[in-house]
Design the sequence.
């Protein structure tokens, strides 16, 4: 299964995955309009048609879709990317472009080699020694034992850390908002979500909202909203103290 | 004073050509003109002249054997017309069925020079273990030290067999991939422009 | 009624002789007349006739290549007059250095005592097949039992030749590696720990 030949039928795009990638890279297609979940579904459907699991294709797909998700996330949070990653937006763009160009170059080179292999298929030659040749011996010059010690020392050397910073889209920890809202709810029985998160970045707001959902799941608060886009109202739920403390402990462990 | 040479009844260049034929038929890899000169105890220029004589003698069509310049040296191979018979002899040509993953990995190693498995994985976006093991087993790549000289990842480079299988005189015969390069520059510019717009 | 055959311009036996030349130049073992017949899709008798044609073409003296009939069948060899040149080709000067892969593998076996190929691969982070095969062929390591008695992987240890090449009276004369570990067990632990980090 060849991932880049995956046929897609999305609202804004119809054609092979490879073409979609090219259009996105050239910004002829706005990634914000592309339904990435649709691509995932198409891939899974194609995968299901096959009898066996194609790990190679899965790996390739995962990397491509992850790159697209990263790009889309950046597009959805404009102006904040600088705070999100250690890299400046220009550096991040540079890095992404470099990686994608390198990937495409490797594909081109592989295609050339494949053609070359086909055209050179008629060339046969002997690999290895001729049938009637005495076996050649190449004696080894005297060696220094220090070379052995040196080789082993190098093997024992700590490897340098590989930096993956350019890959990371940092989300503020949810736990930070859990604590903050719990503290708030001990002082007040209700508050408006928008008012509390007003000054924050959109990513922080997203994290804060996840915290609210989690506290609701734990039964610590109730959420209500009069209408779509109306203010979200948070209300403290009356609870037994011990149960709440237990859950608090559980959360601290899970979000650490 | 050249007298002693005149005692040799045959054309000396022809004699040298015969020696080269012998060397080429027993060699297990292409031999450079220098290696041929050293083994035949003659000078490189004369070896090159004699090689032309050998090439003529085995010109495609006249013989089933062909002399070719490949992988930085000279070697005999079977003529293309005899490919079908050779294929029957070998049943499964070991070097020919390369998977797309192996070809991509091979391309990266050939173009980027010595590079490590993590390098390859970074570019291909998938782990390179099995492709690398496959290429090593076929003798198309081999180890070439480690990253940073020290305890880094093992690097790989293509072998002379790679050049032979792909019929290349040397790696410099690989085509340039400029078109893609230009494309990349364009993409980079556009991404830069967007980045500036967004951070403004 | 034979008309169509007359359209073939070359002597078909000559064509078969060319095919045999090609097969013999790519073969790595002598080929019997039957094998040659199967590969050239012709019959054995005609192959034998064509072989006489090839033998003539490469008669000693005319070419540096000679067709020889040995136990297993037919093969090309170098002409006797070219024996000296061929000997020079094969008697390469002593190799000055071991490849980095071979040196690493040898260091592991020398310092850690008998170890198996999986062991070596785990520490080096790459497959050990070719490095081990190379050292075995050079006689620098040899087999020393198996992991966990019978069923396990073959273990290797260094040989007396290894000690001679490295100028050591015994393995206890290896340079100390106190900075890595006090004894083989400690060094092994350290190498495993680093290898794990490297592959992470």
Sequence:
């Amino acid at each position: 299964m060849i991932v880049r030949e995956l046929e897609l039928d999305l609202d804004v795009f119809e054609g092979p995955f490879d073409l979609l990638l090219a259009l996105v890279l050239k910004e002829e297609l706005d990634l914000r309009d592309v339904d990435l979940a649709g691509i995932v579904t198409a891939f899974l459907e194609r995968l299901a048609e096959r009898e066996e699991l194609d790990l190679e294709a899965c790996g390739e797909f995962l990397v491509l879709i992850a790159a697209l998700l990263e790009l889309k996330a950046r597009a959805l949070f404009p102006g904040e990317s600088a705070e999100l990653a250690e890299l400046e937006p220009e550096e991040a763009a540079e890095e992404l472009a470099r990686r994608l160009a390198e990937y495409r170059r490797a594909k081109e080179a592989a295609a050339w080699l494949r053609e070359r292999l086909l055209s050179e298929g008629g060339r046969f030659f002997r690999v290895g020694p001729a049938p009637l040749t005495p076996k050649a011996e190449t004696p080894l010059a005297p060696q220094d034992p220090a070379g052995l010690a040196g080789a082993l020392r190098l093997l024992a050397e700590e490897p340098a850390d590989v930096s993956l910073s350019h890959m990371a889209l940092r989300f503020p920890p949810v736990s930070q908002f859990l604590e903050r809202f719990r503290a708030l709810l001990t002082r007040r029985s209700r508050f408006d979500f928008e008012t509390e998160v007003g000054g924050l970045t959109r990513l922080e707001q997203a994290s804060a909202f996840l915290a609210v959902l989690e506290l609701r799941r734990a039964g610590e608060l109730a959420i209500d909203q009069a209408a779509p886009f109306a203010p979200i109202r948070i209300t403290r739920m009356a609870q037994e103290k011990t149960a709440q403390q237990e859950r608090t402990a559980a959360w601290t462990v899970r979000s650490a | 004073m050249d007298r002693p040479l005149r005692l040799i009844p045959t054309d000396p260049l022809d004699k040298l050509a015969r020696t080269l034929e012998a060397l080429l038929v027993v060699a297990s890899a292409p031999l450079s003109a220098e290696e041929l000169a050293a083994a035949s105890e003659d000078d490189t220029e004369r070896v090159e002249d004699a090689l032309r004589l050998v090439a003529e003698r085995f010109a495609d069509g006249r013989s089933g054997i062909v002399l070719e310049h490949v992988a930085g040296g000279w070697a005999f191979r079977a003529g293309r017309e005899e490919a079908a018979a050779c294929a029957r002899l070998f049943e499964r040509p070991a070097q020919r069925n390369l998977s797309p993953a192996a070809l991509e990995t091979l391309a990266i190693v050939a173009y980027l020079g010595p590079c490590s498995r993590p390098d390859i994985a970074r570019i291909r976006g998938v782990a390179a273990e099995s492709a690398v093991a496959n290429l090593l087993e076929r003798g198309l790549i081999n180890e070439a030290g480690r990253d940073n000289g020290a305890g880094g990842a093992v690097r790989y480079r293509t072998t002379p067999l790679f050049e032979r299988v792909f019929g290349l005189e040397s790696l410099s015969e690989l085509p340039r991939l400029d078109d893609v390069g230009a494309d990349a520059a364009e993409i980079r510019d556009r991404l830069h422009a967007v980045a500036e717009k967004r951070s403004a």
Residues 13 and 50 of chain B are 6 Å apart (CA to CA). Chain B touches chain A through 67 residues (CB under 8 Å).
